[in-house]
């Protein structure tokens, strides 16, 4: 089936191939049989399976199985020394309380699902915008959102209120990050009038549902009269996912591609597992050990009791044992001893534990000092069953940026063509030598500032007062663009692919031809731009030193830049290297074809794009190094020191250079400076290298006299 055909010729809204699905935009045919609707369900139970499923979960614990065994034995009047109600009453009560708690939690989940499913949203049906419930959205529908609306399903953006096709989304429900992300409509949808969006027709070729929230490799084709079947590649930046919120954007609309439990969030939910704390696991083990001991005691006493019965008991007139008993007579005495020994594991232990856990969780809620002073929100234990595990934490694994640090980047120093700026004052923006070089339009400095200003994905916005504000997905990019603006290289406007830079009093225009986005493997990002005045095509790049310096053109001396990176790293600053090179028209055109082909593939897109980028990103002229400060949050060193004294171990994950990471770790009190502590480095890029490094470190620890080790 060709994607180029008109929608009238297609019998279905969409169909699913082996590894991908085709979604037809705004088609009024029914797709109910092909894909699930947008009804979400986080419930653990149903009315029919609640009782058996809950009982199965409760009796999966050995302690509960033991109490049930004892309660069943007490129903046999021949062996029980007590009333069965003394065990059955507490047992039924405990299980009823646990089941009621589970039922209440599941009922709250049902109410939450019901509220989400019945929320009213705007959807285009038969060319008209209608209010429908979120659960009635189907794949291929066009959904309209207003500012601060929650996204009801996974959408591919096709229009926003912003002239440049941008919108901001809050993704904290997906990834925990509070910074707003910028999303953009596909290039094929640029310029489509607001009134025509609800009439748009086309097809989206996308992968089957998955839970990767950072990746979406798809293609879009719009049908005439909008555009004649030109393939437009889609990435995650062209999507807004379920449970995100639209922010700072008047309206946006998109095509539903994944709905219900097939959204990326729905695929990652999984089946909730019953939580078992370390104490519960320990008590189950102890219960098992005591039960084994009981069996041994019962067997010894049972054999002794039966022997005494056959030898002595029948001689005593007051015992009244019959001469012949039933076949199970040998079991009576051992089972009686089992019931007598059952007090070794009292049923009150379960009652006491559940009561103490609930009370402990309440103490957390009542703690007046555990409060966020900025928002006034107190602490709240959402799960009363696992609160005691808080006291058994041995390891804390933490990210650095935004967790230990403020994630507010400040441009501090730079090295341009071997000249260091900001070393004396600690602020390059106040260095008179740099200010004089900018005023004198030094070619090296101008080129360096140009890369700072436009090698990014930042969008300039004008405020009501006329001031220019920057929308940046990365705080590093925001710091660089603002620093360039303070040095009179201001990024003032972006209209489609045309950028305007104001340097001193002149305006320079560049056309963005391609953007080579940053990835964790490449560790750099580049833009290919064309100077609108001279027609010259240049590649501008920035990235980590290991991703830029080795690719400098043959003959360029990079020792000064390496020294700058090392120096800034020792100060705990984040470093980026800036570079550029000029391209010929033929070189760019040949590479552009390969880049477009790689960008539109659905299989291994990221790897193919990286391979094509490598063909262009070489023979750089390195311009310099920037150094950015990310300050620690208040109280971080003191908090970490206190937790370390409590015996808690810390691991910090960071993408910084090793020297930078060490300086941050010292300032955070992660590690102690010499001679109080000894720093041992484990380096390696392969498993064998890491093993050798570990062996060397272990040998050092055995022979060292440093305390503490």
Structure in words:
The chain is an alpha+beta fold and 709 residues long. Helix content is 34%, strand content 24%. The chain is built from 18 helices and 29 strands. A nine-stranded antiparallel sheet has the order 19-18-28-27-26-25-24-23-22. A hairpin with a 2-residue loop joins strand 18 (405-416) and strand 19. Helix 1 crosses helix 3 and helix 14 (585-599) runs antiparallel to helix 15 (605-614). The longest helix is centred in the middle third of the chain and has 34 residues, at 278-311. The radius of gyration is 34 Å and the shape is globular. 30% of the residues are buried. Mean pLDDT is 84; it is low at 1-17.
Tags for this model:
alpha+beta; 18 helices; nine-stranded antiparallel β-sheet; 709 residues
Query: Could you name the ranges where pLDDT drops below 50 across 5 or more consecutive residues?
Result: 1-17
Question: Per the principal axes of the C-alpha atoms, what is the gross shape?
Answer: globular
Largest sheet: 9 strands, antiparallel
How far the N terminus sits from the C terminus, by CA atoms, comes to 68 Å
Structure annotation, total helices: 18
Structural class: alpha+beta
Number-wise, the strands total 29
Enumerate the strands of the largest sheet in spatial order, edge to edge or round the barrel. 19-18-28-27-26-25-24-23-22
Integer average pLDDT: 84
Helix content: 25-40%
**Radius of gyration, in angstroms, nearest whole number:** 34 Å
Oligomer: single chain
């Amino acid at each position: 089936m060709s994607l180029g055909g008109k929608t009238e010729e297609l019998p279905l809204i969409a169909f699913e191939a082996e590894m991908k699905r085709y979604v037809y935009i705004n088609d009024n045919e029914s797709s109910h049989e092909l894909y699930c609707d947008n009804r979400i369900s986080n419930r653990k139970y149903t009315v029919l399976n609640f009782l058996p499923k809950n009982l199965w979960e409760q009796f999966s614990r050995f302690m509960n199985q033991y109490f049930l065994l004892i309660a069943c034995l007490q129903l046999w009047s021949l062996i029980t020394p007590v009333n069965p109600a003394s065990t059955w009453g507490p047992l039924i009560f405990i299980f009823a309380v646990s089941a009621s708690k589970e039922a209440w939690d599941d009922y709250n989940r049902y109410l939450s699902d019901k509220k989400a499913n019945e929320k009213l949203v705007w959807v285009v049906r038969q060319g008209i915008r209608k209010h429908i419930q979120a659960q009635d959205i189907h794949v291929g529908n066009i959904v309209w959102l207003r500012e601060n609306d929650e996204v009801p399903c996974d959408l591919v953006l096709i229009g926003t209120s912003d002239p440049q096709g941008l919108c901001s989304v809050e993704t904290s429900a997906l990834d925990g990050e509070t910074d707003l992300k910028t999303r953009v409509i596909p290039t094929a949808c640029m310029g489509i009038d607001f009134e025509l969006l609800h009439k748009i027709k086309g097809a989206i070729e996308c992968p089957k549902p998955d839970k990767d929230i950072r990746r979406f490799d798809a293609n879009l084709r719009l049908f005439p009269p909008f555009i004649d079947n030109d393939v437009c590649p889609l990435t995650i930046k062209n999507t807004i996912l379920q449970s995100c919120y639209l922010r700072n954007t008047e309206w946006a609309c998109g095509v539903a591609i994944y709905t219900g439990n097939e959204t990326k969030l729905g695929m990652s939910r999984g089946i909730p597992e019953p939580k078992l704390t370390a104490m519960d696991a320990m008590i189950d083990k102890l219960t098992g050990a005591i039960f084994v001991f009981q069996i041994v005691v019962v067997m010894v006493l049972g054999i002794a009791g039966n022997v005494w019965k056959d030898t002595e008991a029948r001689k005593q007139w007051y015992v009244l044992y019959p001469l012949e008993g039933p076949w199970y007579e040998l079991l009576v005495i051992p089972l009686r001893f089992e019931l007598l020994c059952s007090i070794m594991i009292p049923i009150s232990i379960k009652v006491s534990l559940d009561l103490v856990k609930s009370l402990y969780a309440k103490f957390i809620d009542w703690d007046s000092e555990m409060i966020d002073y900025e928002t006034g929100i107190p602490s709240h234990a959402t799960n009363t069953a696992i609160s005691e595990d808080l006291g058994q934490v041995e390891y804390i694994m933490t990210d650095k940026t935004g967790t230990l640090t403020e994630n507010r980047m400040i441009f501090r120093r730079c090295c341009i063509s071997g000249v260091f700026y900001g070393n004396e004052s600690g602020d390059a923006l106040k260095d008179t030598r740099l200010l004089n070089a900018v005023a004198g339009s030094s070619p090296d400095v101008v080129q360096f500032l140009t890369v700072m200003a436009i090698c990014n994905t930042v969008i300039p916005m004008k405020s009501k007062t006329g001031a220019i504000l920057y929308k940046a997905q990365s705080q590093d990019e925001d710091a660089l663009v603002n620093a360039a603006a303070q040095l009179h290289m201001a990024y003032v406007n972006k209209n489609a692919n045309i950028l305007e830079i104001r340097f001193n009093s002149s305006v320079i225009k560049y056309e963005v031809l391609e953007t080579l986005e940053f990835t964790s493997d490449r560790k750099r990002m580049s833009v290919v731009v064309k100077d609108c005045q001279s027609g010259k095509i240049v590649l501008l790049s920035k990235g980590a030193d290991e991703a830029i310096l080795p690719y400098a053109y043959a003959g360029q001396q990079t020792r000064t830049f390496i020294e700058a990176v090392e120096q800034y790293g020792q100060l705990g600053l984040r470093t980026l290297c800036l570079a550029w090179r000029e391209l010929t028209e033929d070189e760019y055109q040949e590479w552009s074809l390969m880049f477009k082909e790689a960008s539109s593939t659905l299989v291994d897109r990221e790897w193919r794009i990286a391979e094509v980028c490598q063909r262009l990103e070489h023979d750089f002229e390195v311009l310099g190094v920037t150094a950015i400060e990310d300050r620690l949050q208040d109280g971080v060193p003191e908090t970490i020191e206190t937790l370390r004294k409590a015996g808690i171990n810390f691991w910090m994950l960071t993408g910084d250079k090793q020297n930078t990471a060490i300086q941050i770790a010292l300032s955070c009190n992660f590690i102690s400076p010499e001679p109080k502590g000894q720093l041992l480095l484990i380096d390696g890029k392969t498993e064998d290298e890491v093993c050798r490094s570990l062996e060397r470190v272990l040998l050092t620890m055995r022979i060292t006299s440093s305390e503490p080790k």
